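Holo model, beta-D-glucopyranose. Inputs:
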Amino acid sequence: MKRLANIALGLLASAWAAGQQKPMDQFVTELMGRMTLEEKIGQLNLLPGGDITTGNAVSSPLARLAAEGRLGAVLNVRGQDKVRALQQAAAGSRLGIPLLVGQDVIHGNRTVFPIPLAQSCTWDLEAIEQAARIAAKEATAQGINWIYSPMVDIGIDPRWGRVAEGAGEDPWLGSRIAQAVVRGYQGSYGPHNAMACVKHFALYGAAEAGRDYNTVDMSRTRMFNQYMQPYKAAVDAGAGSVMSSFNVVDGVPATCNKWLLDDLLRHKWRFGGFVVTDYESINEATVHGLGDQAVCAERALKAGTDMDMCSKAFADRLAALLEAGRISMADIDRACRRVLEAKYKLGLFDDPYRFCRPERLDTDIYTPEHRQAARRMAAESMVLLKNDAHTLPLAPQGRIALIGPLADNRSNMVGCWSTDDRPEQHSTLREAMERAVAGKAEVLYAQGCNIYADEATQQAATFGRPIDRVDDRQARAQALSAAAKADVIVCAMGEMAEMSGESSSRADLDLPDVQMALLRELVATGKPVVLLNFSGRSTTMQWEAEHVTAIVNVWFGGSEAADAICDVIFGKVNPSGRLTMTMPRTLGQIPVYYNHLSTGRPVPHGASGFLKYRSNYIDHRNDPLFPFGFGLSYTTFEYSDLTVCGSRAQVTVTNTGSRSGVEVVQLYIRDVAASIARPVMELKGFERIRLSAGQSRTVSFDISPDMLAFFDTQGNAVVEPGVFEIMVGPNSRDVLRATYELK
Ligand code: BGC
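Output:
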């Protein structure tokens, strides 16, 4: 019986194979010619797998819908066997159309890479592309063919927890990274590639007060100049799908926003893939106040939404809407065609089991090469923020006190959105450190404190990754006793994995209460204190920056983070991470970002004027604690001789320290006078170079018109002749300046 079924499936697959040899248009047109209305609507329906088990994958409601041709895609179905069972059900439907199988593979799969914000701090586009390629390879080995990433939302408000999932605050760097990730996932749609889904279109990162899902409101000028570029870049790189965002754009929820999805994305940007909603967005449009489910389904479809994630609004409403003449057959056909085209591009009509090869489960997942790449990238992503008296790198000798709630914690190392992680497969920091110094130094471990003094807050912070509560007084005493015996104190403190990511906004960005109290006591011992700050966002560290000896922002480095941290703190790797998100001094400065518009006040330093007008705050400085692009190294670099000759800018960079290191040479441009107010500076290029001790290199940048352009309110690039300031340096604050004139 089983054999017969397999033969039938084989015949079906080869029938499709023959079909797919036809050009896509012809193939899809012929297929649609045979589809009923119900089958077409079925293609627009995306439902979650939840926790179906292998057995009932065959008899689950999903399998039934798939077998009836009323399901186009699934998400969160885990395990190749379950995916295969669902694909078999779909293959058994009247037309046997295979399923898209989606998942949030956000920063790696079983091999977990650093969170995207940390990845962006590497400024290493090749490594980022490779991480995406590996993630796709592991995901496709498990049946996934569609990845809900990259998230390219610009993040300038660190209260918003989802900044962890993006590439920071800069549109230009964000665009380059978006393209690298799309290339890494999609490649040329081979068996190790999945379709990317660029999200969340659009402006999701601009939620008021950094509260996830909150209202967004902004001018077209700001939209096009600060927020839209990474989405457009991802589309230009050929991203196969786009996910609309939860928020309103110009007052209309993105999912129902015709201007956004149709005029801009489809027509102006010529996006050729399909648009999926975010989770239940069509139903949420009702809550936004657009009307009942039928109205929202109608508006979403007409606006250009092709697939409905989990609302069941398309599945339940479109037939009646058609009958009532509120939507047309052409509306449904258009969406259906786009979904079928995606399946065609993925080669699913050739072989619905293309991503269900059992042998790949043994060869393609969590391999030593993948882990090595993740470890390398994690080390590259860490940002050295302070290093008094060359405290780092540590010599592996004497006694090292390792203190803090993240020091011996397995499940929180990886960061948010790492659902395929197997914590038991990788080390805690304590284990990695003991290995790294074995036979040379002694590690004295103490947890030292809870995450938060308040149990309920701790519960929220450790959602899904609980850690034991300790008696704070007792734990503190143990930590102080370990510190007393040690030569150096290493603190593993900060956020837990679930304190950033979706629905994880924070209204206070300081080191949580009990951790801060302990850190102060450890600093008071007078011993050198190294703070490893775990975070999924920029946090406020004004006190730490003044009092702690050395600080490394380690973010969440993924499954290999523990070894990577040791690589950095013991000097196997010289840190080269550079911030892609400004670090504020204090919460009240937020949003504080480097590429802000030029304004008339406060008056610049050095200019005459009342003292009162030199800062906008009475109680604080304007400038951030650590600027965009900032990061130290165990060596030092000097910049000299910035010249602009023709359209080429050149600078000399010298490694003036005593060890080899990587420097990220950054080019910023300012449009001095234009028809609209322009930012004080904008990143337009960079080069990552390795210099050995004493070595100098000339780095050049060709200034091209696109680097000088801005966008008008229609989203058109405009280049205006005139004078531009050219700035090159190690970060956005410490730059050399020259001018360039575009005639
Ligand atoms: C998130 C998306 C995610 C989707 C599917 C939503 O809540 O906003 O980023 O891709 O869920 O899991």
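Residues 1-15 have pLDDT under 50 and may be disordered. The radius of gyration is 27 Å.
Archived with the compound record.
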